[in-house]
Amino acid sequence: MFTTALEQASTHKFGKQILDELYIHTDYLERFKNIEPFASLISSAIAAMHQEEIQLYNVAKINISRKKLSFLQYLNFEDDAFPILNRSCSYDETKDKITKRIYATSLNPPILHRKELLVDIDHPLRQKWVEITKSAEELGLFSTENAIGFKLNWERVIANKGFELIANQFRPLGNEIDQIKLDDFDLSTPVQRHLTALSRSSLSAPIQLMIGHGLITKSIEIFDYGCGKGDDIKGLNEIGYKCKGWDPHFASENTIETADIVNLGFVVNVIEDPVERVEAIQKSFNLARTAIIISVMLHSKDRQGKPYRDGFISSRNTFQKYFSQDEFKDYLQNILEIEPIMIGPGIAIVFADKEAEQTFLMGRYRSSNVARRLLNSRFIPRSIRVNRDTKIRSPRITKSEREIEKLRPVLNTLWTQALELGRFPEPHEIENNYELLKTISLVRAKRLIWTNFDLRLLEESAKTRSSEIKLFLAERQFSKQSPYKELNLRLRTDIKTFFGDYKTANQEALKLLIDSANPDKIRDACEEAASEGLGWLDTNNHSLQLHSSLVERLPIILRAYVTCGLVLWNNIDEFHIIKIHIASGKLTLLQYANFENEAIPLLIKRIKINIPKLDYDVFEYDSINFSPPPLLFKSRYMHEDLSGYAEQLAFDEELDSSQIFDETDQYLTIINIKERLSINRKEISGLKLQDSSEIPQLDQRCGKYLSYRDLIHCGETQARLGIPNIPLNPETYNSILKLCCKVLDPVIEYFGAIKLTYGFCSNALGSEIKARVAPKLDQHASCEHNLRGNYICTRKGAAVDFIVEDENMLEVAQWLVMHCDFDRIYFYGNDRPIHVSYGPDLSNQIVLMRTNKKIGKLIPKVISKEIFLSTQINSEL
Question: Long-range contact list for 216-221, CB < 8 A, 24+ apart?
């Protein structure tokens, strides 16, 4: 179906094909109004949308096999070499459903390559775009295994080749390249990037979490109480932090000192004396000026040792006391009489400084990169067509404008801080306040910003920050509220700016909690989140599922919903996917094994929280008692800003195009998945879906109707001589499968049973066939090697000769040409078998094999598709 549609599109000499999808410029949709199946799909999509909305888009993505059409809006389509996707609207005809997506604030939006393919050859700018693509090809930018379909990934590939893209031209990077700019290309989390780039030290999980939360910085002092061999101390000092430590065995000579942050890492659980255990916690806490981080071992099924006191003792005479998460939290609260904050499994922070605690708690509700996303936002008015022949005069620059440009660096700094705060910063909040005041007064700076910057961005930031304060105060409704005077200065300023007074702020917070229990409002918020790429809204709108790192970017009512659930379960740091149940008031937390590195990760833990009933259930999966459910199409739950998204999306799109799975599949195991992939000659390698490297059984299904044996043991010579004729190269089996799926299956579905007369030909079989064969050309040897280790046929692919009994083979061949992709067809006559091959070139070459009566030999003649499908073919035969 798709091949036929693509053939029809190609007659218009434009269109870009990626897997099962065809991209064209929307200006050319009109040309398909009489071509089916394009016409009906386009008509249905347009009817389901508003005509005015359609005018916003400039590219159409059509998937005939899935009956989907997406309208895409790329910014500055004509002028930018690789334009950025700003929004999309997709119509699914099978479900009669429209899905919208906005990329305006994405830091890593999709981009478009080879845009010249989307327009007709007579487009006035097409040649210019062709030259840009040619330049990229010459630099080797497309010949890379890296994903390049997203802005930051593409920039990273360009930079790695030693170039940068300026004004649609690739220019070599100079020595003065800004290192910060290069760092922006790394899409991994700040903590992991920082540690990988600057040190090979393996810091403990608690220390990494503290760095990630911003509690450990290079400007403070850290003390490791019970430091063991000192790995964390060494690792931190090597990368510029100030850390000391003490241990009763390995570093007993060191001085015990106070510090801003104290680490008590996996010490409590190895002390067998309960009294000494409590003393260790109290002593270490008294050393902390700001906070202490305490970590312990949690209960697990693989714990070893014999019961001893309140723990276990091992064969090496070591002690372990195990905790549950709730038990550990209560234990610390009883000892220190301060409520700990759980930031990970068995990892807690206890603050000695109350103001620092408020700052930290508020920070947990503050969305990251707010200013950067707003400055990067691409909210634009509807584009207006401009006559390119009209000359535009450059406006005259005024004295006031020259002054603003001179002060631009200072104003930009203040503007960025304002966007981070959602309000103009107070004098004490401004970085480098003294240096700034030498340049301009704050009053004048504020006036210039108010009159020369886009205040809509500040309004968006204020909306975000005020919502986050409501969320913070809503969470405090579940515990003892702090009096207004005990709030830190920044929070008091925020409350006064955004709400006027503390009472109003708390009333708004309470209203937020009430709204978070309203299913209709939750549903609306889930639809809004999905439209911004924040998660996957399932088919029946029962739930929104998303990566846990995206929670901070959800609409505030959904963040409140999640917060209510986390009152019962302390944190989400160990979980990867969050599932918000729209109508039932439930929240599910899903943890997967090796989530980042597996294309189809396996579920190992599920927490189902019933918020109305204040209860939760814990389910753990293992390969013995419970088969771990796999997570298919992982990219659905991610976002293009996340590390590994581009690679995962490429994997999922290839998996989806294979149509091995559909949404009706339930209770699949990883074994089922691998079996299906194996049948389709595919296997998973990391985050890639590649052709299989295994040899299948000959009687295994090859396509819908045949087996590998059918195509391997089908020749007269092979049957007469009994030569094994077994392919030795897995690549051959992959090619035979493609030949079956792309050519033979469609023919059988249309004409019925076929008779195979000559299929695979091994080196051994080929040596026995003396006449009328060309093993170096005919592709019957597929991907096998000769004795020298070279391909017998460099065309590779696979070939077969077949006949449909009681059918005119010219009609069969013509149908095949119209409906299937192929490499070569050799046509011998109306009542003779036809030869067809499918290979990497897909040259679609048609060869008439006519007998020359004078010399008694077959003479090949290449003819065009148009002649072969016309009545003129009869005169050629």
Answer: 216/241, 216/261, 217/241, 218/242, 220/259, 220/260, 220/261, 220/290, 221/259, 221/260, 221/261
Structural element, H or E, at residue 387: none
Q: Are residues 175 and 207 in the same domain?
A: no
Residue-wise pLDDT for 62-73, tens only, equals: 887 778 889 999
Q: Is the dihedral of CA 406, 407, 411, 412 positive or negative?
A: positive
Tell me the residue range of the domain where 863 lies. 701-876
Q: What's 830's DSSP letter?
A: T
Prediction pTM value:
0.77
Other C-beta atoms lying within 10 Å of the C-beta of residue 767: 11
The CATH number for 340's domain is: 3.40.50.150
Res. 603: pLDDT tops 60:
yes
Positions of E strands within 47-146:
59-63, 68-74, 85-92, 97-102
- CB count, 10 Å around CB of 270? 16
289, 745, 877 from 805: Cα distances, Å: 90, 16, 20
Q: Where are the alpha helices (DSSP H) in 532-614?
A: 556-566
Domain assignment present for residue 105? The answer is yes
Beta strand 682-685 pairing with 59-63: unpaired
Strands (E), 234-328: 242-246, 259-265, 288-295, 306-308, 311-313, 319-320
Q: What's the whole-number mean pLDDT along residues 517-543?
A: 90
Q: pLDDT tens digits, residue range 740-773? A: 999 999 999 999 999 999 999 998 888 887 666 7
Q: 25 CB contacts (<8 Å, ≥6 apart)?
A: 14, 58, 59, 60, 118, 119
The reply to whether 93 and 147 lie within a common domain is yes
Number of domains the chain is built from: 4
**Cβ–Cβ under 8 Å, residues 98 and 56:** no
pLDDT of amino acid 396: 66
Write down the mean pLDDT value for the chain. 84
Nearest to 333 by CA among 322, 355, 348, 344: 348
Among 215, 308, 227, which residue's Cα sits nearest to residue 261? 215
Same domain, yes or no, for 125 and 213?
no
Assigned domain for 469 exists: no
* 770: enclosing H helix or E strand: none
The set of residues, in sequence order, having a beta carbon less than 8 Å from that of 50 and lying 6+ positions away, is none
Maximum mean pLDDT: which of 314-328, 342-356, 531-545, 597-611: 597-611
Cβ-based neighbours of 144, under 8 Å, separated by 6 or more: 157
Residue 190 within a domain: no
| Burial per residue of 666-703, b for 16 or more beta-carbon CB atoms within 10 angstroms, e otherwise | eeeebeebeeebebbbbbbeebebeebeeebebeeebb
Q: Are strands 288-295 and 259-265 parallel, antiparallel or unpaired?
A: parallel
Q: What is the CATH number of the domain that holds 817?
A: 3.30.1380.10
Domain final position from 631, 658, 685: 658
For the chain, first and last CA: distance in Å? 29
803 shares a domain with 870: yes
Mean pLDDT within 269-275: 87
User: At 759, phi and psi to the nearest 5?
Assistant: -120, -125
* Whether 123 and 232 share a structural domain: no
Same domain, 174 and 226: no
What mean pLDDT do residues 169-198 have?
42
Sign of CA dihedral 860, 861, 865, 871: negative
Q: Which run of H or E residues covers position 126?
A: helix 126-138
User: Are residues 41 and 163 part of one domain?
Assistant: yes
d(CA 644, CA 387): 42
State both tokens at 390: 């009209």
Q: Work out whether the CA dihedral 27, 33, 39, 40 comes out positive or negative.
A: positive
Judged against a pLDDT cut of 90, whether residue 410 lies above it is answered with: no
* Same domain assignment for residues 536 and 636: yes
Residue that finishes a domain, picked among 179, 214, 232: 179
Sequence-distant (6+) residues with CB within 8 A of 339 are 333, 479
Q: Does a structural domain hold residue 303?
A: yes
Exposure b/e, 201-222, CB count within 10 A at least 16 = b: eebbebbbbbbbbebbeeeebb
